[in-house]
Design brief:
With about 325 residues, the chain is mainly alpha-helical. The chain folds into 2 domains: about 100 residues, DNA polymerase, domain 1 (Orthogonal Bundle); about 170 residues, Intergrase catalytic core (hpI Integrase, Chain A), CATH 1.10.443. Helices cover about 50% and strands about 5% of the residues. The protein contains 13 helices and 5 strands. The strands form 2 sheets. The protein has a 3-stranded antiparallel beta sheet, with no helix packed on it. It has a two-stranded antiparallel sheet with strand order 4-5. Strand 4 and strand 5 form a beta hairpin. The longest helix is centred in the first third of the chain and has 20 residues.
Length: about 325
Amino acid sequence: MPRGWDPEKSLIPVILPKKLSWILLIKIAGTGQFKKELILRGLAPSSIEEMIRDLQVIFRYLSAPVAHVTQEDLCAALLALKEDHSLKNVSLNRKISSLKAFFAFLCRKGIIREDPAQRIPSAKRIKEEPAHLTRESLWSLLEASLENPLHHTILLTFYELGLRLSELITLQIEDVDSPSMRIRVMGKGRKARYVTFSPELLVKLREVVKVPGGYRSRGPIFLQESGTPLTASYLQHMVKHYAQKAGIASKTSPRTLRHSHATHSLEAGVDLFTLKKTLGHRSLSSTLVYAHSAPDSFHRAHHRFLAYAFSDG
């Protein structure tokens, strides 16, 4: 076992094989330090969790020692991973990014001399329309969760506010401004925005933070039933469970609820610039992808323009 590594202080859960090599231990120790660095960089907990999980999966496909691994070794591992799990290019690119960040870290720490991941090319991005639920399916999903008030409120919050998974996890009680019916959301790059919510959602949020003798006044709005913080896997499994219960055949995730919010907003006549601000997009091009999902909204907008432009008044 290498000096300076304490398995009790490792920051990631690792299933250790029966026979450990010092190389694997360096991998584990390096990943623990790597996670500390990601935390200091301000990455969202769910993003860090995904990166660490990506690395753990890729490591299972690598047999060469870390100090001698080549670009060809890494590409072969990624190709095998893509074939075994039928990965789409967007998922493959995320794993490539995780791998590049990790090996760059190993170079900085002097664990390896050369970076074999630096020149790995990204897979070609194929633009796909965001998957969303119809309004009927959305209401079926919400109705299926009524048996569990906490889960129902989480699903409703995802949809009504159009939140990313990491944004819901980090919602804080003290960020709720009840008089103005707005909540502060911490988005990508720790960029804050304010999103309006309904009186109905406020009532449900108050029920979530209720404790014997009053209400919690600080900390995350949502916790698990055990009182522990929410995790990405907890939320993903929860959404999948109620989608199956509601008879929704298509793949449904927290991201689907965000896409549904965006699509339904455009269908209701919300303009792109307002939607961009609500979703926390840096570029309008990110918001424009929803235009393909709600083409009728643009037809209605054009008819409103014609009625205004050629009216007698």
